[in-house]
Design a protein that fits this description.
Blueprint (H helix, E strand, L loop, with lengths): L6 H6 L4 H13 L11 E9 L5 E8 L13 E5 H9 L5 H10 L13 H6 L4 E5 L2 H7 L4 H9 L3 E4 L6 H10 L10 E4 L3 E6 L2 H21 L15 H15 L4 E5 L2 H7 L4 H5 L9 H4 L4 E2 L4 H19 L13 E4 L3 E6 L2 H24 L7 H8 L2 H8 L11 E5 L4 H12 L3 E6 L13 E5 L5 H15 L4 E4 L15 H26 L6 E5 L12 H21 L5 E7 L10 H10 L4 H5 L10 H12 L10 E4 L8
Parallel strand pairs: 5-6, 9-10, 12-13, 12-15, 13-14, 15-16, 16-17, 17-18
Antiparallel strand pairs: 1-2, 1-4, 2-3, 4-7, 6-7, 8-11, 10-11
Helix pairs in contact: 6-9, 6-15, 10-14, 10-19, 18-24, 19-20, 20-21
Length: 656
């Protein structure tokens, strides 16, 4: 591990200790091997004058909910150092009391809750304090004889702290261990099964001490040939199996969840280890990971239902053995899975949650293998892990996520998604909490959406092989398919039947009818495994009210509508709803340029604004309006409706 300290950047900040604290915190936070997703904490002690002109020492410590990688000045909670010292002198302090009195000691009432390690940061007598959960160091501690190993590698320059619960108990333990100690005699502290602390008056020295300690551990692992697991080639996974697993998992979780396959070489190699079930069942890399990953993954066989049932029974036994009076059991669903020969899978209700699980488990798999080479992976005892999993302060972190959005955990696919109605549907689905596979023939689809909730796929919908590949990629990335908005289409050049070009006619049929039939066909096996599955077909006003010169378009859309009606009848017994929308005069789409709009308006003797609102309600219909109705039809409001055809046109006398 190399120091990322930049003298030029640091020089700009030399007159502001808090800015320096932000700078070095981000240096630590950007290294995944040091901290992951909110892990670790940092602090700085600053003398400031209060409103009365009195000088007092303030501990600015990382606030709860902030991530070191992106932390800013407001992410540090200012706490009166004198109050924290008094708390450290107490014999006992409950978690809730600690949170309460730390908040009472804040000099800014709108600041976030101070880190649970605030008291510990306070008693370390240095201006800058850094704390990480460095993988390489924790690997060394998570082995039989880990303490002896640390002593041999670091000697007397490191104070070794036996594992105790974070928060007041840990602070009190270190407070007692260091009474009368010369802090200058050590370079840092290693907390068994937990992480590393370094400290100094100079932020550069504190930061580079951390880098040095971790580098020493990395060199030791390399010398012991404790390398990463050998990469293996993945066996071709069946996306239908993934969808089946997701369905079973959502049942255990009692809500739709996402499921992502990691079939990288390292992941597959780990899944193929002969003792993978045994070693992965010993516990997480650090105890604070347990609120994200649970204690263990599920190791899959050919019977997913039994695997999840056995996992739930095992979790119940674990809870019953260690529970305290009044504790309520959390859900019994795993957060990740090992799928021998195929890799690993991560589960969560949102993309963010899945990303966190995937990141943590990637580091965990590497650490387990390294520890096995050193002599064996050894996590904390079950009682300690349970205490952390059901620790009220850790559970509070999860509850801060707030209420779930209506479509959270659901997976949609939208065709013709690069612009117009399709693009608007993607944006609305994401706003409702869904994840979306966005298909379009335009290469623009790969860059138009920046959200991680959207998977852009370039696809020619007239090619059944490309449709099949697109859906399989969707399932491997998100886990399944619940909702389908089949929207792709073209509006052919106006032509009478007498003058119809054969190729133009066929192209309209291929794109406006056949491609939708093919998409339904390849999507159907996955929709059958979906969560409240629903399909919305984007039709046209031309179905109930066709016009001359538009036979290629109108006939195709009529055929598409008939396809939707039959699909509603065929798929209803499978619980799949199919409904049809008939938009008209949606002018904020790619085909309606300013030039075309002006020409059409002039043809009817209207202004552009009059032309756009030329309906009974005298209102403009936009892509967003169509998307809003599409979302409604996919949601609970339409949970008992199928086969419906609904116009969205501002009122058209011919349709009425």
């Amino acid at each position: 591990m190399k120091s990322s300290w930049n003298p030029k950047e640091a020089k700009k900040l030399k007159n502001d200790l808090l800015d320096l604290r932000v700078y070095t915190s981000r240096l630590l936070g950007k290294e995944e091997d040091l901290v992951l997703h909110g892990g670790g904490n940092t602090s700085v002690k600053i003398r400031e004058k209060n409103i009365f002109g009195e000088e007092e020492e303030i501990l600015y410590v990382k606030g709860s909910g902030w991530d070191l990688a992106t932390i800013e000045r407001p992410g540090f909670s200012p706490v009166k150092l004198s109050a924290l010292h008094k708390l450290a002198d107490l014999d006992k302090l409950t978690d809730m009391e600690m949170v309460k009195y730390q908040r009472m000691a804040l000099t800014n009432p709108s600041a976030p809750n101070p880190s649970v390690e605030a008291i510990l940061h306070a008693i370390i007598p240095y201006t800058f304090v850094d704390h990480t959960h460095a993988d390489a160091v924790v690997v060394m501690t998570n082995t039989p004889g880990g303490k002896k190993r640390i002593q041999e590698v670091y000697g007397d320059r490191i104070l070794i702290i036996p594992y105790v619960m974070p928060g007041f108990i840990l602070a009190k333990k270190i407070y007692e261990m260091t009474k009368g100690m010369d802090w200058n005699s050590i370079d840092g502290m290693i907390l068994m099964n937990h992480g590393v602390f370094t400290f100094h008056e100079d932020p550069k020295v504190a930061y580079e001490k951390m880098i040095s300690i971790v580098t020493t551990a990395e060199k030791y692992l390399k010398k012991q040939k404790a390398v990463e697991v050998k990469a293996s080639k993945s066996k071709a996974s069946d996306p239908l199996k993934i969808a089946q697993l997701r369905k079973e998992l959502s049942g255990v979780w009692k809500k739709p969840v996402l499921c992502r396959l990691d079939d990288s070489g390292a992941s597959v190699g780990f899944s193929n280890l002969k003792n993978v079930k045994k070693i992965s069942g010993r516990g997480p890399l650090t105890p604070d990971h347990i609120i994200r990953t649970k204690r263990t993954p599920v190791v899959l066989s050919n019977n997913f239902q039994k695997d999840l049932s056995d996992y739930a029974k095992s979790y119940d036994q674990y809870f019953q053995k260690h529970k305290l009076k009044g504790q309520v059991q959390l859900d019994q669903a795993p957060r990740w899975a090992i799928w021998p020969k195929f890799g690993t899978l991560s589960f969560g209700p949102t993309v963010k949650a899945v990303n966190i699980i995937e990141d943590i488990t990637r580091h965990t798999k590497k650490a387990i293998h390294q520890a096995e080479i050193l002599g064996g992976w050894k996590a904390l005892p079950l009682s300690d892990l349970f205490e952390m999993e059901y620790w009220s302060l850790e559970q509070a972190k999860l509850k801060k996520a707030g209420n779930a959005k209506p479509m959270q955990g659901k997976i949609a696919l939208v065709s013709g998604a690069a612009s117009g109605i399709g693009k608007a549907c993607v944006e609305r689905l994401v706003a409702e909490g869904a994840v979306v596979a966005a298909l379009d023939i335009s290469p623009q689809i790969l860059s138009v959406f920046k959200q991680k909730e959207v998977l852009g796929i370039k696809c020619d919908v007239t090619k059944s092989a490309q449709l099949k590949s697109a859906i399989e990629n969707t399932v491997r990335h998100f886990g399944g398919l619940d909702m389908l908005v089949t929207n792709a289409g073209i509006f052919p050049k106006s032509s009478t039947i007498a003058n119809m070009d054969e190729k133009l006619w066929q192209k309209s049929m291929d794109i406006n009818v056949t491609s939708h039939q093919q998409l339904l066909k390849v999507a159907l096996p996955y929709l059958e495994l979906g969560f409240d599955p629903a399909v919305v077909i984007i039709g046209s006003k031309n179905v109930p009210a066709p016009g001359p010169g538009a036979s290629a378009y109108s006939v195709a859309k009529a055929g598409l509508t008939q396809l939707g009606r039959i699909a509603a009848m065929e798929l209803g017994s499978k619980g799949i709803r199919v409904n049809i929308l008939h938009p008209n005069a949606v002018y904020d789409t790619a085909i309606w340029t300013d030039t075309v709009l002006k020409a059409r308006a002039k043809h009817y003797g209207l202004t552009v604004e009059e032309y756009k609102t030329n309906n009974i309600l005298k209102t403009e219909v936009t892509s967003k309006d169509v998307a809003d109705l599409t979302i409604t039809m996919l949601g609970k409001t339409f949970s008992k409706i199928t086969g419906a055809q609904i116009p969205i046109d501002g009122g058209n006398d011919r349709v009425i």
